[in-house]
Every structure is written in structure tokens, then in C-alpha cells.
Amino acid sequence: MLDEATPTPIAQIQELRVEFQTQDGPVLGVENVSFDINAGETVCVVGESGSGKSVSSLSLMRLVEFGGGKIAGGRLLFERQNDPAVDLARTDQDVMRDIRGNEIGMIFQEPGIAVEPLLQPFAVIQSIDTYDQRPVLQGCANLPVHVLRRVADGGVGEFLRMAMGGTLVRGAKPIMWSPVERTALAEAEVEYHDRKVPVIWVKFGVPSREDGAKLVIWTTTPWTIPANQAVSFSTDISYGLFEVETVMSEEELGFPPYAAAGDKLILADKLAQDVLDAAKVSAFKRVEDVDPASLGSLVHPLAKLDPFFQHDVPLLAGDHVTDDAGTGFVHTAPAHGEDDFNAWVSSGRRASDIRDIVSPDGAYQHRDLPQALQGLDIIRTSGKKRGEQGKANPEVIKLLAESGNLLARGITTIRDAHSWRSKAPVIRRATPQWFISMDKPGPNGKSLRENALKAIEDTEFFPA
Fold this sequence. Notes:
Elements lengths: L8 E14 L2 E14 L14 H8 L8 E10 L7 E2 L5 H7 L11 H5 L5 H6 L16 H11 L3 H8 L3 E11 L4 E2 L5 E16 L8 E6 L10 E4 L5 E9 L2 H4 L10 E5 L3 H7 L2 E10 L7 E2 L12 E2 L1 E3 L12 E3 L5 H9 L45 H12 L2 E14 L7 E10 L11 H10 L7
């Protein structure tokens, strides 16, 4: 006989196995996952990125199959409220539609948005007491409201004051991202290996100059050019205007050169020779000094291709710019590099203005991108060539050449991050995140930074 004190499971996950079909055959999502959920009990599923937490939860909701997954084994026993127990792994979807939202629900990382997507989280919590009257909750369980009310009444008062004071903003920040696993990776989850990559020298127009001079950048990630929003320079580097006099002929090279006699290029003095050698320039002269801070905004190299690229490209001073390699200028795509991001926000620009044009699959995806780029992958995520260069780099280089703004191209070897699981390269990709301004004045007229520094000053430390 069952003891009255023995908890009764309302859900039993027994040896759950989920597979995802790929071109190389089935890939395991989770295997042999088992646990019980008792009435009134909170069960926490903890694991590293990609360990299967979300897959297990989506399986319990029978939503995993809508993302390409398949429950290949195990049982998901569920005690229904007013009906016989069922095995969710084999229950008809019509029955699941009745269960989902009525007897089983999911609260995501931002519970307020799960309850009402049109409201920001702090607005949800602020108006929590009126939620029971909102049509969106009709027929839903009260648990999300109960949880949010407890959160609002708990230790998040200061957080809410920041939100209502306007210092909490939603933006994006670049992180290491694995397109193969479709997940973010921490530094401890990557390995560094050498790999060959394309390198290109690209010309940006300078409308403030009447001589047609172009400013030159250098990058080993051509796929980030469509995401370019600025160019960075250093106040510690000397720059000059260089005029091309002669270029090696097509007969000598075996291919037509991109540079031409009469081209005027703005480069770091120390790197000019290396850049012009790469462009197969046989003779050139230095014309004058150039101060990048006086140039104003630049023109995106693909501006003639599509209105998407017809935006100002500001010049930003950045501590990360050196004259050790490249051109002395750094192409800046704040969605795809930590230094780029820091230069962007340090200049007073908003994280919310960062352009996010790459999907979780590592492919171009933005409603305003030109059709020629839509859907192109940065690296291959499946098949025998998984981890190799995708279609994005070659297409961007082709478009730059057609635009007349490709100065030179080549191949180089870099040491770059790779996923420890798939061994495929990772990319840097902006993901939505929340930011708290350190310098915007709060209710007392002082910024969070000022309040924090004052609190530190007023604190007595032992030992001193």
C-alpha cells in the first residue's frame, strides 16, 4: 500500500530519447533522460549549453517535432486533471492541443513576454495587478501571474526602478556562436585551431574629398562587410594620401588587377607599402597627410548595390586599432566583433541600433537585405563539408569586385575559435540582451556609476 506521505508523480519522464534528422543521418538530441515531477514540486534541469535542457522541455510539450526533432524512445507519462493518464510521447496532436496551455505550460527566460509578447517585461510586472482582466489570460492558468507577482514583490525593486527610470534598454551584443549547434558558446567551450581564410582590401568612398580619394580597410571576414556600420582609426597612427602611378599588367599577373593608375588611397603610412604590394601596384607616391577625424562620414562599398547599404559610415576613434597589420583602419561591424561593439557604444551610439543580419543558422537573414545575399551561409553546417566556408564570403567578394571597391584579395592563415563539440569554426554574432546604463541620471539626479562610486567611498573596508 502506498504511504500517504509518499509524493505522487504527476509527470514521469522515462528514458527519453530524441533524434534530429540530418543529411548525415540521425543525430542524438538527448538520450536516456529520466526524472519525475511530483505535485507541488519544482524540478530544475541544469546543464551546459547544448546539453538538451530545451529539447527535453519541448519534448514534454510535444513541440520538439515542429523543430525537426523526433521522440525516438522512452515514455512521458502524465496524470491529467480530469481525464485518464496519457503517454505524451505517443498522444495524438489533437489531444496535445487540448493539454498545452490548459494543463501544461512553459514560461521562458522572459516570463512576461511569454504571457503577453507585446509588453516589455518591466511593463508586464508594473501592471501585474490588472492582468487577470486581460483577454490574453482568458482560459490560461494563473501560475504565470502568480510567479510574476512573487517576482515583483521580491528582491527586484531596484531593477524595476531602473526599468521605469529609462536606464534599462534592450539591445544586442556580439558573442561566440556556433551555427552548427545553433547555440552560444562560452570561452571554455571553444578550441583554437589554424585555418585558411580569404583576406580582402576594400575601398570606402569619402564624400568630403573632391579628389575621389578612397579610404581602405582590410578584413579576414568578408561576410561581415554587409553588416558594416563604421570604420575605426587610431589617433596615434599617422595617415597619408597615396596616389597609384603604375600597376602590374594583366599579362604579368595572369588576371586583371583591381587597382588602376590615378587611384588615390588613404592608408596608414607604416602599412602603405604592404597594402600597395598586395594590390600589385608597382609605383606610387605619397601626396599629403590625412587626419581621419576631419573626413566626416564614409560611403559603404556596396551602397550602389542596394538601399540597405545607403547609410552613413562614421569614422570612430578606437584604442583597438594598430598599424601592426592591415591598413591602419578597421572595418567595424558592431554585431560581429567585441572591439567593434565597444567602439560603437563608446562613441555614444546605441546598442539597439546595431544591425543583426545573421540568423541562428549562421546565414544572412534580414527583410531588407538584397536578394543576392538572402539565405547565404557563412560556414556549412551539415554534410561532408561541415565547418568549411559557405556561400557568403565568395558572394560578398564578387559583389565588391562588381562595385569597383575591391582593391586586392588573397588567402591567409589565422588562429580562430572552433566549437569543442562539432570542431567547426564559430562566428561572432549579436544576440538580443538587456543593458543598464551606468551614466544616465536616475531618480536622485545621479547616475548608477556615481551612486556606486559614492557607496564604495562611504564603505569602510577591513583590512584597509
